[in-house]
Design brief:
Distance between the termini: 25 Å
Radius of gyration: 23 Å
Shape: globular
Number of strands: 17
Helix content: 25-40%
Largest sheet: 6 strands, antiparallel
Strand content: 15-25%
Length: 561
């Protein structure tokens, strides 16, 4: 995984080179091994790349931007089936110079067009400049695992792996208030098309765009992942998903929460990948205990021979890293658990490891949230029912003290209407809202320490298998993620295999950051007044902390930029 930054400038200015370099340097944490860039002859187009070397046998093979006589490209991602793709290209008479998956991707696109990406088993954020036409193309993988944000205005187009890379090119920072308010209604189910910054948007997963010197932005292609009748047993697909993501040239870690998903990954690493050595890391709180650490210890004892490291987390470390994690996430911190995750990835980096496997993505596709968020009634709901549901939730949370009823309805409709389909309504919300939030968090929290997170449950074949199943098959006799549990019978110890869904272990309540600490960070740039917070918290006490965290975010980012 790496960092990418690109710009297509329609208006030239004297400090163009300076702010482009500033934007690229803002991504050095994503690629500490190498930094390089390309500028077109007319200086309108700039492509920059920061490299975290993982997939190639030598550093030189992975350097970007990569240029041919036809194109220049920067790429962030992984092609897990790169060997099969290489064989396909070579059999067609296409010469490849090194072992970089970037070269495979570039040559494949040049030879077969964007449809070549339909054959990719992996994830990507790619930006390609076509020399002959002067057009800039860009795309993300269909699940949105790799991040790519953009800003489009009369000056041109800027693209980057993280919003902070664009923010450093601006004189002022303005937050997107409707985007922030939608989180108070939908939690992590908000529409993720917009970032938390005005005029900076997320590229839509699976969409391919072109941009030219006249300022025309067009969608030219799309790819998605749909249901597919299973052709192999689920256990074999799980084993392949895990083994395909084990790095060839580096050792790896597993973020082990003690829950079903991370335990499946750890178990399959041990039993299905030639007893591959790995480090398992679990958070352990000084101020309290949780069931997850108990189950993580049980799994490690069951597997045997696993280097299990328990990372101690206390109130002091949470407070010390709050501001840092706000800046890393580029969004308000709605849950302190992200500080713990940041500390886990930082610890993994100190071990000299560059890759970590994580269980994110299983819940969204296998019915893990059927009971957890209390949304099971929405699996068969139409859009009118869903609007009424979230409108009632917004009023119950006291949000009518912030917005009128008409404004609440408009906010909810704007979030739901683009995503709601007849038969897969809630599944779309899970994929396009919750999943996008979770994998964005993992990407930024891990890359802040130069660690690439890989998500086996987002393997395309595994996702297609899950989408082919009904919710009744996924939640069987009241048990969520039933197919995964059945598939792991005889491999995963039953104590964990039958354990019900739990959230990632949260900070103990007595170690929580207080509202006084948060209010001191907001300053004069707070979005909510004390009276507004008080009015909302009377109806929904949990929103007091979150609204103070939003104020803190506003204060932190506006001071930093």
């Amino acid at each position: 995984m790496c960092g990418v930054f690109a710009s297509f400038s329609r208006r030239m200015c004297s400090n163009l080179g300076h702010w482009r370099n500033e934007g690229l340097n803002a991504l050095r944490h994503r690629g500490p091994d190498f930094l390089d860039c390309y500028t077109s002859c007319d200086e309108r187009v700039f492509l920059g790349h920061t490299l975290l070397s993982i997939s190639t046998s030598t550093l030189g093979n992975g350097k970007q931007p990569m240029k041919t006589d036809r194109s220049v490209m920067v790429f962030n991602g992984e092609l897990y089936n790169h060997k099969a793709l290489r064989e396909r290209l070579v059999s067609q008479g296409i010469n490849l110079d090194g072992d970089s998956d970037t070269e495979i991707l570039l040559r494949g696109i040049e030879s077969h067009g964007w449809a070549f990406l339909d054959a990719v088993e992996g994830c990507w954020a790619v930006i390609l400049y076509e020399l002959a036409t002067g057009k800039l193309y860009f795309s993300r993988d269909p699940l949105g695992e790799k991040q790519l944000v953009y800003k489009l205005d009369h000056n041109g187009l800027i693209l980057a792996s993280e919003a902070k890379s664009i923010l450093v090119t601006q004189d002022e920072v303005h937050l997107d208030a409707p985007r922030i308010l939608s989180d108070l209604v939908f939690d992590f189910f908000s529409n993720r098309e917009c970032t938390y910054f005005h005029n900076i948007k997320n590229c839509q997963p699976g969409r391919f765009y072109s941009y030219d010197v006249n300022g025309n932005l067009q969608e030219i292609y799309s790819c998605g992942i749909g249901a597919q009748k299973p052709d192999l047993p689920l256990r074999r697909k799980l084993a392949h998903a895990v083994s395909s993501m084990v790095p060839e040239h580096h050792a790896c870690a597993v973020v082990l929460s003690g829950g079903l998903d991370s335990s499946i990954i750890a178990s399959l690493l041990k039993t299905e990948t030639r007893n591959m050595p790995f480090v398992a890391v679990t958070a352990a709180y000084d101020e309290g205990s949780n069931d997850d650490i108990y189950y993580a210890r049980q799994l490690v004892e069951h597997l045997g021979g696993v280097d299990h490291q328990e990372l101690k987390v206390d109130k002091k470390s949470v407070e010390q890293n709050f501001v840092t994690v706000q800046a890393v996430l580029e969004e308000p911190l709605h849950d302190q658990v992200y500080i713990t995750q940041y500390l886990i990835y930082r610890h993994i980096a100190t071990l000299g490891l560059r890759v970590a496997l994580n269980g994110q993505g299983a819940d969204e596709f296998w019915g893990g949230y059927y009971y957890h968020y209390g949304l099971h009634d929405l699996y068969s709901a139409d859009i009118e029912t869903a609007i009424r549901y979230f409108h009632k939730q917004a009023n119950n949370r006291g949000l009518h003290s912030l917005l009128t009823q008409a404004e609440l309805i408009r906010l909810i409709e704007d979030n739901l209407a683009p995503r709601w389909a007849k038969s897969t309504a809630l599944q779309n919300i899970l994929m396009e809202g919750h999943l996008q939030a979770m994998i964005s968090h993992e990407d930024k929290l891990s890359m802040a320490s130069g660690v690439e997170v890989r998500l086996p449950f987002l393997n395309q074949a595994l996702v297609k298998h899950a989408l082919n199943l009904s919710i009744e098959e996924k939640v069987h006799l009241g048990v969520e993620k039933a197919p995964l549990r059945y598939a792991m019978s005889g491999i995963l110890n039953d104590q964990i295999r039958v354990r019900r869904k739990q959230a990632f272990p949260d900070t103990p309540k007595n170690a929580y950051i207080g509202s006084d600490f948060l209010s001191g960070l907001g300053g004069h740039r707070s979005l909510f007044s004390k009276n507004e917070i008080k009015a909302v918290s009377k109806c929904c006490p949990k929103l007091e902390w979150r609204m103070n965290a939003i104020n803190a975010f506003s204060g932190v980012v506006t001071r930093a930029c």
